[in-house]
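Let us practice reading a record.
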Amino acid sequence: MLARRNCLQDLPAGHHAGLMLDKYLRSASEKDAATRLHDAAVLAVAQTSEAYALAFARWQTAYGACYPTGQTRRAIITTQDRLAIGLGNASPFEVGLTLDHTYGLPFLPGSALKGLAAAHASQAWGVNEARWKEKTGEYHRFVFGDTAQAGCIDFFDAWIRPESVNGTTLVPDVTTPHHSAYYSANDQDQIPAADWDSPVPVSFLTVNKGVKFELVLGCDLLAESPAERDTICGWLKLVSELLCEALKHRGLGGKTSSGYGMVELKY
């Protein structure tokens, strides 16, 4: 493993930000190690644009062929501020980032989008309409599914648009907890926070403001008549509005209470 790291250390640049973050670090104790690693990942994203554009076009064709005509909805999600998604992922420097395994680019997991929409449906729409309540509501179960059946709406991973793949896609950021001993101790050994506690800067990567992602929702129910197709399209439109509202009011990813994760969704 040490020999591999030595070889990677001499590379002038990489083309896969995920590999750079996982394998490029030689020693976490080196001065400015986090800064150098994050800078390498930022540059790696810019090197991926040409190959990724071809993959993105293939993806667009593939999802269109999976569903009957008219039973998908496409949207563009644009970050209005920095996006911190996957902070809990494994990382050499405590704070992670969700990157695509194949191309090393940020994406929005379909599971995260579905979970956000499901929570908003139950907690916001379910207040006035019991059928949107989780576990007991028939609308909620029909759209999102439960342990007994799958939901009728498919939430794809949102891929980053090719025009947003460049040297400014990722941005290094820093959080500075002042009372790490207080937050890390258990209830029995909790240490009171004090004014003389030393700040401990923690570097992490975020998705920059203005980055665009393409989202696809689909419904594979079979429509045997024009009326049934209209019903399916109506459900797709309704879920689209639900997700748009959830993203507007709740944000996506981590640190939303600090302004991160605010996005705009347009169909």
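A brief commentary: The radius of gyration is 21 Å.
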